[in-house]
Write a structure and sequence with these properties.
Layout lengths: L11 H13 L5 E8 L9 E2 L3 H9 L5 H9 L5 H8 L6 E4 L5 E2 L6 E6 H32 L3 E4 L8 H14 L3 E2 L2 H7 L9 H5 L4 H11 L3 E5 L5 H18 L6 E6 L4 H14 L6 E4 L5 H9 L6 E4 L1 H4 L9 E9 L5 E3 L16 E8 L5 E8 L10 E4 L7 E4 L4 E5 L2 E5 L2 E2 L6 H12 L17 E3 L1 H17 L5
Parallel strand pairs: 6-7, 6-11, 8-9, 9-10, 10-11, 15-21
Antiparallel strand pairs: 1-5, 1-12, 2-4, 3-5, 3-19, 12-13, 14-15, 14-18, 16-17, 19-20
Helix pairs in contact: 1-5, 2-5, 3-4, 5-6, 5-12, 6-14, 9-10, 10-11
Length: 489
């Protein structure tokens, strides 16, 4: 998508802090930042990581051009030497990330940045903006797709999205999460994803009568003929007129690749069952019945339970705006300083709110699978130097309730490291997959969740544990920081 220069897509305090680092002589101090989130959206047991491709493009294209420098100078906040530094700014650090489409859980780094602090600081706002939004929509789409039980889901919320970028990148994320296509033509062009659509009520109302409107549409699109049947009277006008047009196409020897009706209002369960009976009796048992109209995963699930004869779902507002959960809640926190000799000094934030206490150090994530079922047993966050030997027993424990433990016997589990290198020393070494390939990968990832984890209410949660070494580092640092700052908190 052609965008303006996104370099200033940041909060002002990022730039004021950067000038502070520049002025105090610590701008080149190597640091590590983690991006993670604290709780799953929608009261779900998981989320779907998305937005990495756009994050990569953002980092590749950071540049403070003449217009950006002139604007910053006009604010009377920044010194000439700092602005001169910005004029030559480019990212020189490392970035590790969990690939798009991966199932992720709270507190584990989705992105890890190691770079001079002045560079790492700038990335915070834009990375959170991009990854929070797309991960939120991809997660919502995965829930909608699961409710549909294999039926096609078309994303068509562009007109209700919070702006062009949200609508377009949201469509991409929705396809990653499980939608089969989008109505957004720009998203189709940019990301090479399927675009789908029928016609609106205005088409029907633009002709003298409904039958004429259907006939004209069928003439224009004889091989892709989905007719919207609820403009006037669904059962007594819309469906009978659609059937008449389908019969006329058949008499002309035309066998459409896609033929069917769309319901957009009324009792969708009742109307779809009546429509199915009418279409079958007319000799069109393979005609599609699609539906739209303020749908989400809960409505689709209930319609399925009520025996609705719908096999294609158009989901708009509640998906593209994530109506029931407006934000993802990802954060970006400093976790380590790296000294010139390579020595790591862990950093952590503590808080009166236990959920806001961070995990220190340079970390990686191991996903642990049951070897027989290929389902996820747990995720284990470790320090960078740690490894797992699957020929040895592995004991995992809850970092908050340490008495909750499980020991996996040798050769009964498999592990996969989740963070992969994206940038090394400022050079991008990662090729982003095609969006539809990410979608396929996401479906594979979702299949590694236990069915109990997909429930909408009180789902089973996958443990995210800390290695013993990281656990002890965390708690020793809490004690040290509290003692050091006693009386200042």
């Amino acid at each position: 998508m052609q965008n303006p220069n996104w370099t200033l897509l940041t909060d002002l305090y990022q730039l004021t802090m950067m000038q502070g680092y520049h002025k105090t002589g610590i701008s080149q101090q190597q640091v590590v930042f983690d991006m993670f989130y604290r709780s799953n959206p929608y009261d779900s047991s998981y989320a779907v990581a998305a937005g990495l491709q756009q994050a990569i493009e953002y980092i590749k294209n950071i540049r403070f051009g003449e217009e950006e420098i002139a604007y910053l100078k006009s604010l009377d906040l920044f010194s000439d030497d700092f602005l001169e530094y910005l004029a030559n700014f480019h990212f020189t650090g490392d970035m590790y990330a969990i690939p798009e489409g991966t199932v992720v859980f709270p507190m584990e780094p989705i992105v890890r940045i190691q770079a001079p602090i002045i560079e790492a600081q700038l990335l915070e706002t834009a990375l959170l903006n991009i990854i929070n939004h797309q991960s939120l929509i991809a997660t919502k789409a995965s829930r909608v797709a699961w409710a549909a039980q294999g039926d096609g889901i078309m994303e068509f919320g562009l007109r209700r999205a919070q702006g062009p970028d949200a609508g377009t990148y949201g469509a991409r994320a929705a396809v990653i999460g499980g939608c089969t296509g989008t109505s957004n033509v720009l998203a189709g062009q940019l990301f090479d994803i399927p675009v789908k659509g029928t016609h609106a009520h205005s088409w029907v109302m633009s002709f003298p009568d409904e039958l004429t409107a259907f006939r004209e549409y069928a003439k224009l699109f004889p091989h892709n003929c989905i007719l919207l049947v609820d403009t006037y009277d669904t059962l007594h006008s819309g469906i009978p007129n659609a059937i008449q047009v389908f019969q006329e196409l058949r008499e002309q020897g035309i066998e459409p690749k896609l033929l069917g009706i769309r319901l957009d209002s009324g009792d969708l369960a009742y109307l779809s069952k009546k429509a199915r009976k009418m279409l079958d009796e007319a000799g069109f048992p393979h005609a599609i019945i699609s539906a739209s109209g303020d749908l989400d995963e809960y409505v689709i699930r209930d319609l399925k339970l009520q025996g609705a004869e719908i096999t294609l779902w158009g989901v708009g507002t509640r998906l593209i705006t994530s109506q029931d959960c407006p934000s993802f809640g990802g954060v970006y926190k400093l976790s380590a300083h790296i000294m010139e000799d390579g020595h790591m000094i862990p950093k952590m934030k503590i808080s009166e709110n236990p959920a806001k206490v961070t995990n220190p150090g340079v970390k990686k994530i191991f996903r642990i699978y049951d070897k027989e079922t290929k389902k996820i047993k747990a995720d284990l966050i470790t320090l960078q130097e740690e490894e797992i030997d699957t020929t040895q027993p592995l004991t995992l424990f809850d970092p908050e309730n340490t008495w909750k433990k499980m020991t996996l016997a040798p050769h009964t589990y498999e592990v996969r490291e989740l963070l992969v290198p994206i940038f090394l020393k400022g050079e991008c070494i990662y090729d982003s997959p095609h969006t539809m390939d990410i979608r396929t990968y996401c479906q594979e990832e979702l299949s590694t969740l236990w069915e109990e984890c997909r429930r909408f209410h009180r789902p089973h949660t996958i443990p995210v544990d800390l290695s013993e070494k990281l656990y002890h580092l965390r708690h020793s640092m809490i004690d040290e920081l509290l003692n050091k700052n006693q009386g200042n908190i």
